[in-house]
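User:
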Amino acid sequence: MATREKKSAKKPDLKSEICARIADGEPLRQICRAPGMPAWRTVYDWIEADKDFAARIARARALGFDAIAEEALEIANTPVLGEETEDDGEKVKIKTGDMLGHRKLQVETRLKLLAKWCPEKYGEKRSVDLTVNDSLAERLARARARAAG
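Assistant: Predicted structure:
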């Protein structure tokens, strides 16, 4: 019985830590792999059972999306030196330079996930053309003619 009380006493602290880490842009499954953290399915059970916690998670995710977007910008703006090796069978060439392809993949992955997770903020802007070529009077006249038979 004492161990259950300890676990339930820790739950609010765990919930706060989970929310803080999500707000920093850390994925839930990664958080749940850390020692002392509950399984990710347990967190989803808490979300279903506790409306307040669900609202806190939603706010944390919104903040986390912004953190991920800022991280993508930081990755794009920060060169990372690395080595590429080419082996043509006779000799190995080592080329040192910016790992542009790797950074591009990291940025694109984050942006695509953001567009899926929060399309209203990070998705493609879509517009609907509502231009009407006929005047309202012409359309009403045609409708009346159809109705009259």
